[in-house]
Amino acid sequence: MRVLGIESSCDETAAAVVELDGMDRSVRPRLLSNVVHGQVEVHARYGGVVPELASRAHIRNIQPVIDQALRLAGLEPSAIDAVAVTAGPGLIGGLLTGMAAAKGLAMALDRPLIGVHHMEGHLMSPFLDPQAGEMDFPFVALLVSGGHTLLVHARAFGDYGVLGRTRDDAVGEAFDKGARLLGLGYPGGPAIAALAEGGDRTAIPFPRAMPGRRQLDFSFSGLKTALRTFLGQHPDKLEDAGWRRDVAASYQEAIVDVLVSKSLSACRESGERRLIVAGGVGANQRLRELLRERAASQGIGIYFPPLALCTDNGAMIGLAGARRFLAGQRDGWELNARARWPIERLAEGVG
Ligand code: KG4
Ligand code: ZN
Hints:
41% of the residues lie in helices and 18% in strands.
């Protein structure tokens, strides 16, 4: 079957066509097209995603992106068997735009509509990589982006438990806000990573937050404050290139160190030996390096999907939708977008 997947929960307007011919684990999905229209230029001057601007950009881009996904797949709209759309969680304006487009198309084509949980989409990204032949459930997933920071125990398709989540800022925000304090551009992750090259990671002992009650939860707001305080204490050094490199490297290390140690603890606690990393922060080279280094000694296999599948895209929504369709899910026209939707409650259904 061929499924059109539509994603618009944050700042990417995306659509893709995925082909899947069965639930058996030996059946690999095929990606027929994958179109992502980002909005970096819309939000750059604000240093973060502005929801109202994101909504307007989604409205402008959704139809052209869908048309292009169909064109690149070489398909007429009637060749689509189902329309899958991110129903939440995310920014409500963008979600409603994707939902309206999906409903319109499904209704016009007389095809089923399938609402997908954005995080379940991210969990699908490794399955879309032809290189990841042996990939299968169960695993632990570290989902890290500008909007989310989650450690998920993915026991089977549709059966997820949250092992840890952020109490305050998402990890991508920690990079973006840190970059702003250092006078760097947006998005902040790549900017901090570039500045950190060659810097001394041990120069400044920034705090590693380990909130007591739930050991696998994250907290990044204290780190951001520590950076602000530290910069305020050294006004004379702000232009010193070598010092700035050390600050960036130490700040990045404080973030990455916590992500790595909690991810590996999550694997130990759940008894899983596979860890996948998805979301924009998964692009961070130091995160990849440190995770590989520490995981190897513990016998844990790490899997990073290719970057195009790691960040928000329609392909992951199309694949989650196809699997839900094959498992019998059909949503009615009353399907609603939800800004908040805990992944643990996925089993209760959409709408
Ligand atoms: O998944 P994504 O593209 O979009 C959503 O937030 O949904 O993630 C964007 C986030 C931004 O906060 C950006 O600063 C961060 O990912 N990011 C990185 C890197 N590349 C992107 N963070 C650290 N290192 C990177 N190389
Ligand atoms: Zn995402």
